[in-house]
Amino acid sequence: MPHGKPAGVRCIHLTPDNRCRIWGQPTYPKVCERFRPSPEVCGASSAEALAILARLESETAPDT
């Protein structure tokens, strides 16, 4: 995503089973490369991870 991924928008590089299509390629974003999973962000399941991500995006969204 050339200008970054807006909050609440699914990454265009994810497959239907939530795998990255560009992992390990030169176009893989630095922000993704530097991300280190942790229980605080990933929770104990995919559903929990998505809920945590939605909350973080909401809490850090700019005021409009």
Structure description:
The chain is built from three helices and no strands. The chain has one domain (7-64). The chain has 64 residues and is mainly α. It has helices at residues 30-34, 39-42, 46-60.
Task: Record keyword descriptors for this entry.
mainly alpha, 64 residues
Counting structural domains, the number is 1
**Which outline best applies?**
globular
Mean pLDDT: 89
**Main sheet specs:** none
Number of strands: 0
- Please give the alpha-carbon distance between the first and last residues: 23 Å
**What portion of residues is helical?**
25-40%
Rg, nearest Å? 13 Å
Q: Helix tally?
A: 3
Output the helix-strand order.
HHH
Work out the strand percent: under 5%
Low-confidence segments, given as residue ranges, are none
Tell me briefly what this model is.
The chain has 64 residues and is an all-alpha fold. The chain has one domain.
Topology:
Blueprint: H1 30-34, H2 39-42, H3 46-60
